[in-house]
TrEMBL record:
Keywords: ATP-binding, Nucleotide-binding, Transport. InterPro entries: AAA+_ATPase, ABC_transp_ATP-bind, ABC_transporter-like_ATP-bd, ABC_transporter-like_CS, Oligopep_ABC_C, P-loop_NTPase. Belongs to the ABC transporter superfamily. It comes from the Bacteria. Pfam families: ABC_tran (PF00005), oligo_HPY (PF08352). This is Dipeptide ABC transporter ATP-binding protein. Residues 9-259 form the ABC transporter domain. GO terms for molecular function: ATP binding. SUPFAM superfamilies: P-loop containing nucleoside triphosphate hydrolases. It comes from Clostridium simiarum.
Length: 326
């Protein structure tokens, strides 16, 4: 009998709106609807890839889950506990379990601190080791992410982009987390380095039983690391499914366009593949008009698309789509 998977994180109708100033003499308030009723689950030890263009709300989703932003509405159920209404004080034990790796490995590391201090800071804050034990732990972590333990006294500027990202990962691992939000961890890296970092994250996941939310705008890398993939468009989740299923049978016109833009190394295959070019403007996320948010760029749009915002529904086992075509 197949082993029952344990859900580590369940996000229900997660919503994050940011108030914005309205023009003079206009009434009421306006909101940037950055994340609007987003729902998904991540099983323990697995990865959910979250993709979409810049500004689609994927990073805000990650930051709201770890309560760097307070959610406007919805549930963040972590290991059975709803963290959505937790105060920052109540969040402290979860700060250790839930870590983030950031996009820019240089900006996220303090250039005045040595690598040992950067990785050791988290160990100190959480009281996870002192003296010799602390040093041993830092060396072990550097080794774990493919750096040399002797790098402990060097500064971030002495490393390449890929190595700096490895330092950021070692820092996240220092507190022995269960769940890591990888926020575009490879976007700023050279293409030749990207695969190395993704492979390392996969090895660490197997070794340490980690669970990931992997945020990216590049669908090709996400496929490699994700069990499931969610596609976001202007604050809404428009499609979600098992990684292979989503790649072979994309349903939402936006997912189809994203997939068609992935370059194929084989020139014959590439020639045969038709690229879907999206036309039209991305609407403003400030108080978007009713209906489907993709309608201005969708060649299949019909009258109902301007009236009703399609809800995410299951069309096949574990394959969800928000589109009036289904
Ligand atoms: Fe296109 Fe309508 Fe589907 Fe939106 S709901 S993606 S406009 S067909």
């Amino acid at each position: 009998m197949a082993e029952k998977k344990q859900v580590l994180l369940e996000v229900n109708n997660l919503t994050k709106f940011f108030p914005v100033k309205k023009a003079m003499f206009s009434n009421g308030k306006s909101y940037v609807k950055a994340v609007d009723r987003v729902t998904f689950k991540i099983n323990k030890g697995e990865t959910l890839g979250l993709v979409g263009e810049s500004g689609c709300g994927k990073t805000t989703t990650g930051r709201t889950i770890v309560k760097l932003y307070e959610p406007t509405a919805g549930e963040i159920i972590y290991n059975g506990v709803n963290l959505a209404k937790y105060t920052q004080q109540q969040m402290l034990p979860y700060r250790r379990k839930m870590q983030m790796i950031f996009q820019d490995p240089y900006a996220s590391l303090d250039s005045r601190m040595t690598v040992g201090d950067i990785v050791g800071e988290a160990i100190d804050i959480h009281g996870l080791g002192k003296g010799k034990e602390r040093i041993e732990k830092i060396r072990y972590l550097l080794d774990k992410v493919g750096l040399n333990g002797d790098h402990i006294s060097r500064y971030p500027h002495e490393f390449s982009g890929g190595q700096r990202q490895r330092i950021g990962i070692a820092r996240a691992l220092a507190v022995e987390p269960e769940f890591i939000i990888c926020d575009e961890p490879i976007s700023a890296l050279d293409v030749s380095i990207q695969a190395q970092v993704v492979n390392m994250l996969e090895d660490l996941q197997k070794d340490l039983g980690l669970t990931y939310l992997f945020i990216a705008h590049d669908l090709s890398m996400v496929k490699h690391i994700s069990n499931k993939i969610g596609v976001m468009y202007l604050g809404r989740m428009v499609e979600m499914g098992e990684s292979n299923e989503l790649y072979t049978h994309p349903l939402h016109p936006y997912t189809q366009a994203l997939l068609s833009s992935i370059p194929i190394p084989d020139p014959d295959e590439s020639e045969a593949k038709k690229r879907i070019v999206l036309e039209g403007e991305i609407p403003s996320p400030i108080d978007p008009p009713p209906g489907c948010r993709f309608k201005g760029r969708c060649k299949y749009a019909k009258p109902i698309c301007s009236e009703e915002d399609p809800e995410l529904k299951e069309t096949d086992k574990d394959h969800f789509v928000a589109c009036h075509l289904y």
